Amino acid sequence: MTASGGPAKYEIRVAGVLDSQWAAWFNDLQLNGEGExxxxxxxxxxxxxxxxxxxRIRDLGLCLISVCRLDTGSTRATPDxxx
Length: 83
Description:
The protein has 1 helix and 4 strands, in the order E-E-E-H-E. The chain has a 4-stranded antiparallel beta sheet with strand order 2-3-1-4, with helices on one face. The relative contact order is 0.28.
């Protein structure tokens, strides 16, 4: 969540590979397979939207690896960002 409580970009990593057919389940966020993980990236409206996404991940039985808030101009987590 940004300081103003508005939208923020996130990168969420889960164990296992999900193909693009799952995009609708994740509100059309970007899904990319990286090795044995799936990276879910995109803009979320607010903190409740993030929690809703994490609930979907839990409901699918996926193993959550990390959640990173990205800089608004970034498409990937930078090395100095803690996850």
